[in-house]
Design goal:
mainly beta
C-alpha cells in the first residue's frame, strides 16, 4: 500500500507525525480526501472531524480551523489551533462543533 508522511501541528507542538495511507479532512468548501501521490495543493480547513488510516488502524481527530498543505514531495502538513484525538468519527464531529 502506498503511504505518505503526515504531520499535524498546533501552536503547542506536534500532535501526530507518521506515515499514513489516507486522510479525510474538513475543507472550507467540503471534505478533502488525500491519498499517496496527491498533487501539491493548499486548502483552508474548517472545524470538524479528521480521519486518517494507517495500515489496519483508523484514527480520528477533532480539528479547529487551519490549513492543509500537500508539498512537492507529496508530504502533508496540517496546521491548526487545536486538535483533540477522539475514539470515533462521531465523537470527533461532536467535539469540533462550533
Amino acid at each position: 500500500m502506498n503511504t505518505y508522511q503526515l504531520s499535524i501541528i498546533t501552536p503547542g507542538g506536534k500532535v501526530f507525525d507518521g506515515r499514513v495511507e489516507s486522510l479525510v479532512a474538513p475543507g472550507s468548501e467540503g471534505f478533502l480526501g488525500i491519498w499517496a501521490n496527491h498533487a501539491p495543493m493548499a486548502a483552508a480547513l474548517r472545524p470538524g472531524p479528521l480521519t486518517l488510516k494507517q495500515e489496519a488502524e483508523t484514527l480520528y481527530f477533532a480539528v479547529s480551523s487551519g490549513i492543509l498543505e500537500v508539498d512537492s514531495q507529496r508530504n502533508v502538513l496540517v496546521l491548526c489551533d487545536d486538535v483533540v484525538e477522539a475514539p470515533s468519527r462521531e465523537a470527533a464531529k461532536s467535539k469540533s462543533a462550533p
